[in-house]
Amino acid sequence: MARSSTPAHDDPFHPVSTGTGKVPRDGERISDPEADRPSECGPVFHGPGDHGTFRSRTIAGGLRMFLRPALDLMPASDVSLGRLRALTSGAGRAAALETTNDWSSDGPVPGLWVGRKRFFDADTVLYHLHGGGFTFGSPWSHKALASRLASEAGTPVFLPDYRLAPENPFPAAIDDVIAGWLWLLDMGFKPENIVVSGDSAGGNLALQLIAALEADGQPMPAGVVLLSPWVDLDITEMSERDRARKDPFLAIGLVELSRQQYAPGMDPSDPRISPVHLTPSPDWPPFLIQCGGAEIFRGGIEVLADRFAAHGVRHEFQIWPHQFHVFQVFHPVVPEAKVALRDIGSFIRGCLRKSA
């Protein structure tokens, strides 16, 4: 595929973009794929988009200077995980008290509806799987992101409160994700009217859901969105990447602890926990994958995108320069996050409109 020497648009926010096949879109998108595979595509940036905006670089630098050292000093222990749970879920719950009535305990897995009052007559839904290393995070911690996704996509979002490790190690989380999917179908949502999304560990679970549906011969969702998915639980490459340039947001010690708590004694190359080793299928739904250029998960995500290309999976893979892990969460202050979320909204609307 020929590579463009100039950005696809005049917008300064222009990520490295690769992909295979035509992915759905509804409205303008920020970029078009420059090559089939990440390994064949080098930077083609020009202007302000080369290194990210000044604001995003400042925020990344601040995280690297202040937050990352604090995370490194946290002992890799159950106490640390407890503090992270309190910080993420507790603060999120306090900020979301006005949505208490949107909590659902009707199905096998409780969860939070976001945007249901705005889109009360919608027959579509975004099924979002929150991140947190399988050990912390909750629907409450991701409510703000889900609210923005609902606005961009024009559809309600359901966040299942899947069980966390170490109390409930593998395969509890994926079992809950599958149960939540089946519950949405029982509620009357058609598979082609559902888009699945996941950030970090939630992206891992989204891939496992697709693999499980394929194995059972079940209908697929209309599309899948992955935000900085944690697809490879082997930390060797990410440790080398972190030594070369510290990740602003992810501490290797806590990543390793989360892996041990989630899948104790399991081989990190087992595709049941590291979906980068799954065998993709051209029958899988279209994917939009976004990754921060500065995050240590980048290497595994690039390998996943290469495997998608090799197996004919329709997808678009975007690497956003200088951005950190799940930078989209910072959409109120990071300009690139707002643009990335608009792209996600275009993809989701395109998937759902195509199935209508």
General description of the model:
This protein has 356 residues and is α/β, with parallel strands linked by helices. The chain has 9 helices and 9 strands. Strands 1-9-8-7-6-4-5-3-2 form a 9-stranded mixed beta sheet, sandwiched between helices. A hairpin with a 6-residue loop joins strand 2 and strand 3 (111-114). Helix 3 packs across helix 9 and helix 4 (172-186) crosses helix 5. The longest helix has 21 residues, at 335-355. It is globular and about 50 Å long. Residues 1-12, 43-50 and 95-99 have low confidence and may be disordered.
List its traits:
12% strand, globular, 9-stranded mixed sheet, alpha/beta, single chain, 356 residues, 9 helices, 9 strands, disordered N terminus
Straight-line N-to-C gap:
32 Å
Biggest sheet, strands in spatial order?
Answer: 1-9-8-7-6-4-5-3-2
Number of strands: 9
Q: What percent of residues are in strands?
A: 5-15%
How many individual helices? Answer: 9
Along the chain, the helix and strand elements come as: EHHEEEHEHEHEHHEHEH
Which secondary structure elements does this structure contain, and how are they paired or packed?
Layout: E1 16-20, H1 54-73, H2 78-95, E2 103-104, E3 111-114, E4 125-129, H3 143-153, E5 157-160, H4 172-186, E6 194-199, H5 201-215, E7 223-227, H6 236-244, H7 252-262, E8 287-292, H8 298-310, E9 315-320, H9 335-355
Parallel strand pairs: 4-5, 4-6, 6-7, 7-8, 8-9
Antiparallel strand pairs: 1-9, 2-3, 3-5
